[in-house]
Specification:
This protein is α+β, with helices and mostly antiparallel strands and 86 residues long. Helix content is 37%, strand content 27%. It starts with a strand and ends with a strand. InterPro entries: PqqD-rel_X.
Amino acid sequence: MYRAEPLSSLLIEPLDELTAVYHRASGITHLLGQPAPELLHALQEPATADDLLARLGREFDLADAHRDALLARLDELVTAGLVRTA
C-alpha cells in the first residue's frame, strides 16, 4: 500500500512543465515532472499499485503496460519522502 504525505504538509506550486513541492516536515523542495504531482493527489487515499493504476486509468488513458513505469515513479516518490509504504 502506498500513501502520499497529506497535502496540508506540502506546498505545491506549478512552474511551467515542472511542479515545485515543498515538504514542510523535511524543509526540502522537490521539482517534479508529470505524473508525480498527480500521484501525490491520487494517493491521498491509500492504494496498491494496481488500485492506483486503475484509479488513474479512469482519468487518463493508461494500460497495464504502464505498471512498471508507475512502480518506478512510486519508488522515486518513496525515496524522496513524499510517499510512504504500509
